[in-house]
C-alpha cells in the first residue's frame, strides 16, 4: 500500500443481477469515503436481464462494463474485471457480489488493514439484511473438521473451539484478526498479491475459487485479515436452496482439498463429506441428496454453468 489516500477499484461480478445491482452501485460512493475510488468494473456473465443496462445508467461512478459473452463463472469474471484495470495505478481491488451493500466508509478500514506488512487480503464483517451477523470466516480445511461437521453439523462444530471449519461463534467476529479464508462475497485484495500469485482459478466455475485464491496467497506468505470496522450487507445466494448449486459447492470443496493434500488424506476427507451429506439426505434435505449423487457419480456433476 502506497503512502497517502489508498487507491481502490471495484470489480462486481453479475449474472442476471438486475434486482440487486442498483443497490450495490448506489452504495459505492458512501462506501468509498476515505479512499480514492479509481474505477468500477461490472463484469457480466452474459446476463439476460437488465443488469448491463442498469450498470450503464449508473451515474457518479467511474464505471465500465466487461461482457464475457457466456456464463463463464465467478473466477473468470473476476479475472476479466481485473484485466480491465491498470493495477499499476492501484493499491487494491475490491471484489464484490452484486447482492452486497457497503455501509458508509466500509472500504477505508479494509485499506488501512492492508497497510500492515504481510497482509494481502482484507474482508469485512458481513451482515444479513436484518442486520444480524452472517458468519463468513473459515479455518483451514482438514479431515478432522470434515468428520466433525459430518457427525454433529457445521454450526455446532464451529462453536466448539476450533473443531469446525466455519467460525460460528459471534464473539470471534467482534475483534479483528487473521483467518485462513473467508466468504468471497466481499474482499479487498492488494495489487501486490494480484501481481505475485496471478489470476483466480477458473476451473472451479463457482464456489471454492475464493478458498483456493486465499490459500494460494497464504502459501506465499500473505495473510487474510478480518476487519469488523468495515461492514457490508450481503443478501446471499441460493446455494442453500438450489440442489444443483449446492452439489457444485460440495464437489468443489472436495476437489480443492484433493489438489492440496495427499491421496490418502483426500480420500478420507471425501468419505467424511459423503457421510455428512448422506446423513442429511436421509433426513430429507434435498440439497444433500443432490450432493451425494454428484459425489458418487462424477458423470452427474455440473460441468458448465447455464447461459
Explain what you see.
InterPro entries: Glyco_trans_2-like, Nucleotide-diphossugar_trans. Pfam families: Glycos_transf_2 (PF00535). The chain has 307 residues and is an alpha/beta fold. It is built from 11 helices and 11 strands. Strands 1, 2, 3, 4, 5, 6, 8, 10 and 11 form a 9-stranded mixed β-sheet that branches. The protein has a two-stranded antiparallel sheet with strand order 7-9. α2 links the parallel β2 and β3. α1 packs parallel to α2, α5 runs parallel beside α10 and α9 runs antiparallel to α10. The longest helix is centred in the last third of the chain and has 20 residues. The model has no long low-confidence stretch (mean pLDDT 93).
Assign the CATH architecture of the largest domain. Alpha-Beta Complex
Task: State the total count of DSSP E strands.
Answer: 11
Alpha-carbon distance between the termini?
38 Å
- Count, helices: 11
Radius of gyration: 19 Å
Q: What is the global morphology? A: globular
Protein name: GT2 family glycosyltransferase
Domain Glycosyltransferase 2-like: 10-138
GO molecular function, one term: transferase activity
Pfam families: Glycos_transf_2
What topology emerges from the helices and strands here?
Layout: E1 7-14, H1 18-31, E2 36-44, H2 51-57, E3 63-67, H3 74-83, E4 92-96, E5 100-102, H4 107-113, E6 119-127, E7 137-138, H5 143-152, H6 154-159, E8 177-179, E9 181-182, E10 186-190, H7 191-197, H8 209-219, E11 223-234, H9 243-260, H10 263-282, H11 286-296
Parallel strand pairs: 1-2, 1-4, 2-3, 6-11
Antiparallel strand pairs: 4-10, 5-11, 6-10, 7-9, 8-11
Amino acid at each position: 500500500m502506497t503512502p497517502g489516500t489508498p487507491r481502490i477499484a471495484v470489480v462486481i461480478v453479475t449474472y442476471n443481477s438486475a434486482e440487486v445491482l442498483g443497490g450495490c452501485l448506489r452504495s459505492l460512493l458512501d462506501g468509498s469515503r476515505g479512499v480514492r475510488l479509481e474505477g468500477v468494473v461490472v463484469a457480466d456473465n452474459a446476463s439476460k436481464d437488465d443488469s448491463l443496462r442498469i450498470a450503464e445508467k449508473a451515474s457518479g461512478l467511474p464505471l465500465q462494463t466487461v461482457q464475457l459473452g457466456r456464463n463463464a463463472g465467478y473466477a473468470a469474471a473476476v479475472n476479466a474485471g481485473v484485466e480491465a484495470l491498470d493495477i499499476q495505478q492501484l493499491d487494491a481491488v475490491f471484489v464484490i457480489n452484486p447482492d452486497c451493500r457497503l455501509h458508509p466508509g466500509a472500504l477505508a478500514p479494509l485499506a488501512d488493514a492492508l497497510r500492515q506488512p504481510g497482509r494481502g487480503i482484507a474482508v469485512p464483517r458481513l451482515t444479513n439484511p436484518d442486520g444480524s451477523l452472517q458468519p463468513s470466516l473459515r479455518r483451514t480445511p482438514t479431515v478432522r473438521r470434515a468428520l466433525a461437521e459430518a457427525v454433529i453439523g457445521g454450526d455446532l462444530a464451529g462453536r466448539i473451539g476450533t473443531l469446525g471449519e466455519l467460525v460460528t461463534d459471534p464473539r470471534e467476529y467482534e475483534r479483528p484478526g487473521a483467518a485462513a479464508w473467508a466468504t468471497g462475497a466481499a474482499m479487498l485484495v492488494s495489487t501486490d498479491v494480484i501481481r505475485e500469485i496471478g489470476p483466480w482459478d477458473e476451473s472451479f466455475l463457482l464456489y471454492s475459487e475464493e478458498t483456493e485464491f486465499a490459500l494460494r496467497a497464504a502459501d506465499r506468505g500473505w495473510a487474510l485479515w478480518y476487519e469488523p470496522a468495515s461492514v457490508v450487507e450481503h443478501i446471499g445466494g441460493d446455494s442453500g436452496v438450489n440442489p444443483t448449486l449446492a452439489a457444485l459447492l460440495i464437489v468443489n470443496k472436495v476437489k480443492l482439498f484433493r489438489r492440496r493434500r495427499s491421496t490418502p488424506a483426500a480420500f478420507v476427507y471425501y468419505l467424511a463429506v459423503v457421510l455428512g451429506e448422506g446423513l442429511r439426505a436421509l433426513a430429507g434435505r434435498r440439497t444433500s441428496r443432490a450432493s451425494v449423487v454428484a459425489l458418487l457419480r462424477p458423470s452427474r456433476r455440473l460441468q458448465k454453468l447455464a447461459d
